[in-house]
């Protein structure tokens, strides 16, 4: 199981910027905590952060065939980027969108996430712990998809054996 964690603009400034909104946790601390939790669950995890929309789109596209799921915090691009939304839809895999602050308690322009429409689920307002919730969610989804695929394969095998009798 491999998960890509994609971080959007200004998240490299966590711990410094607007601590009254985002707290004092740094992106490095979030990634260290995620890596530890991923290892405990036998999951491989990779991290990417960019302040540039096109680089985020490129990274999402690179996930196709290389990872099983994406956790993304598009940050400000959540509210503006059709390109990121379309890239998430194109890769057709489980996607959990995470926001550190509760976007629904913020300014009106932050209360709509364009990118969430291409995400499997949205976690917002739990601070850095939201990433841990995202990891748990992705692991659960991937386990459910694996179980579903195994059940389908067993059904196909049983039908094949029945037809060969």
Automatic annotation (TrEMBL):
<feature type="site" description="Transition state stabilizer">
    <location>
        <position position="17"/>
    </location>
</feature>
<dbReference type="Pfam" id="PF01220">
    <property type="entry name" value="DHquinase_II"/>
</dbReference>
<keyword id="KW-0028">Amino-acid biosynthesis</keyword>
<comment type="function">
    <text>Catalyzes a trans-dehydration via an enolate intermediate.</text>
</comment>
<feature type="binding site">
    <location>
        <position position="86"/>
    </location>
    <ligand>
        <name>substrate</name>
    </ligand>
</feature>
<feature type="binding site">
    <location>
        <position position="73"/>
    </location>
    <ligand>
        <name>substrate</name>
    </ligand>
</feature>
<keyword id="KW-0456">Lyase</keyword>
<dbReference type="GO" id="GO:0009073">
    <property type="term" value="P:aromatic amino acid family biosynthetic process"/>
</dbReference>
<comment type="similarity">
    <text>Belongs to the type-II 3-dehydroquinase family.</text>
</comment>
<dbReference type="GO" id="GO:0003855">
    <property type="term" value="F:3-dehydroquinate dehydratase activity"/>
</dbReference>
<protein>
    <recommendedName>
        <fullName>3-dehydroquinate dehydratase</fullName>
        <ecNumber>4.2.1.10</ecNumber>
    </recommendedName>
</protein>
<dbReference type="GO" id="GO:0008652">
    <property type="term" value="P:amino acid biosynthetic process"/>
</dbReference>
<comment type="pathway">
    <text>Metabolic intermediate biosynthesis; chorismate biosynthesis; chorismate from D-erythrose 4-phosphate and phosphoenolpyruvate: step 3/7.</text>
</comment>
<dbReference type="GO" id="GO:0019631">
    <property type="term" value="P:quinate catabolic process"/>
</dbReference>
<feature type="binding site">
    <location>
        <position position="79"/>
    </location>
    <ligand>
        <name>substrate</name>
    </ligand>
</feature>
<dbReference type="InterPro" id="IPR036441">
    <property type="entry name" value="DHquinase_II_sf"/>
</dbReference>
<feature type="binding site">
    <location>
        <begin position="100"/>
        <end position="101"/>
    </location>
    <ligand>
        <name>substrate</name>
    </ligand>
</feature>
<feature type="active site" description="Proton acceptor">
    <location>
        <position position="22"/>
    </location>
</feature>
<keyword id="KW-0057">Aromatic amino acid biosynthesis</keyword>
<comment type="subunit">
    <text>Homododecamer.</text>
</comment>
<feature type="active site" description="Proton donor">
    <location>
        <position position="99"/>
    </location>
</feature>
<feature type="binding site">
    <location>
        <position position="110"/>
    </location>
    <ligand>
        <name>substrate</name>
    </ligand>
</feature>
<dbReference type="GO" id="GO:0009423">
    <property type="term" value="P:chorismate biosynthetic process"/>
</dbReference>
<dbReference type="InterPro" id="IPR018509">
    <property type="entry name" value="DHquinase_II_CS"/>
</dbReference>
<dbReference type="InterPro" id="IPR001874">
    <property type="entry name" value="DHquinase_II"/>
</dbReference>
């Amino acid at each position: 199981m491999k998960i890509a964690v994609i971080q959007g603009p200004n998240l490299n400034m966590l711990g410094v910027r607007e601590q009254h909104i985002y707290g004092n946790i740094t992106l490095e601390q979030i990634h260290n905590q995620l890596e530890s939790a991923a290892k405990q669950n036998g999951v491989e995890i990779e991290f990417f952060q960019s302040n540039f929309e096109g680089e985020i789109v490129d990274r999402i596209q690179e996930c196709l065939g290389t990872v099983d799921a994406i956790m993304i915090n598009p940050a400000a691009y959540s509210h503006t980027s059709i390109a990121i939304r379309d890239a998430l839809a194109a890769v057709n895999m489980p996607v959990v969108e995470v926001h550190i602050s509760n976007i629904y308690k913020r300014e009106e322009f932050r209360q709509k996430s364009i990118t969430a429409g291409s995400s499997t689920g949205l976690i917002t307002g739990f601070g850095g712990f939201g990433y841990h919730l995202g990891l748990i969610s992705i692991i659960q989804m991937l386990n459910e998809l694996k179980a579903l695929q195994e059940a389908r394969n067993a059904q196909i095998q049983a039908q094949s054996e029945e037809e060969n009798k």
